[in-house]
Design brief:
Keywords: Membrane, Transmembrane, Transmembrane helix
Distance between the termini: 29 Å
Organism: Candidatus Enterococcus wittei
Helix content: over 70%
Protein name: Transport protein
Mean pLDDT: 85
Strand content: under 5%
Number of strands: 0
Length: about 220
């Protein structure tokens, strides 16, 4: 659980570093940092996919999970709903725009959910450790453009990850390693997709796919 607080601290430190030294960053360097974020997400996703496919007990079931999750997400129109909600804050100026971007990149996605789940269910903090590095780079990059306001993303990130962690503890006995492996596989696909979007290779609404991350829970009822 302590890594969750370290993750929040990484955002705080990244925001301070980005604010202090951001004006010295060239546009090319900022673009390079953005590419690092995208490439990191792709590597994390590819690693999870490779591991998940190799150890999966259900093989192609993850495709059905993705279809189910995408159907639910599209019906709820999560991507547009979040975009409409966050657009309300853009009218407050550039600072609020940076805060919106920070929330979108740091608090809503695969790693902030999968990391605490992995820690609670398996006692493994590897995803959170990856997210600590990822969060630091994102915070530095955004704070270099928008300033210290990015620091306010940290408490929200900690609250979300703590909420996921605490919620996962009661279901520990129901989630077998094979089921979590499916979640990791689906999460890897979402992380890979996010990386491709950041690099502007694709424009897939990842948030509409997010329910697929929880679809493997259905397998618990059939085991």
């Amino acid at each position: 659980m302590q890594y969750i607080f370290i993750n929040g601290l990484s955002v705080v430190i990244g925001s301070i570093v980005g604010t202090m030294f951001g004006k010295k960053f060239s546009e090319n360097y900022k673009e390079l940092l953005n590419s690092v974020i995208g490439l990191s997400a792709i590597v994390v996703g590819f690693t999870s996919i490779t591991k998940g496919v190799a150890t999966s007990s259900y093989k192609i079931v993850f495709i059905m999970m993705l279809i189910l999750g995408a159907t639910i997400g599209q019906m709820m129109n999560l991507d547009k709903g979040l975009d409409d909600f966050l657009q309300r804050f853009h009218s407050f100026g550039q600072k609020s725009e940076g805060l919106v971007l920070g929330i979108s990149l740091l608090c809503i996605g695969t790693l902030p959910i999968l990391g605490p789940l992995q820690s609670a269910l398996q006692g493994d903090s590897s995803f959170i450790l990856v997210n600590i590095i990822f969060s630091f780079i994102v915070a530095v990059t955004l704070a270099s453009n928008y300033g210290i306001i990015l620091i306010f993303v940290a408490p929200l990130l900690v609250l979300i990850e703590l909420g996921v962690y605490v919620s996962a503890l009661p279901i520990d006995t129901f989630i077998t390693p094979s089921i979590f492996n499916e979640m990791e596989l689906v999460g890897g696909i979402l992380a890979l997709t996010s990386g491709l979007n950041i690099l502007k290779i694709t424009q897939i609404p990842v948030l509409n796919l997010l329910p697929a991350l929880f679809a493997p829970f259905l397998l618990a009822f059939f085991n």
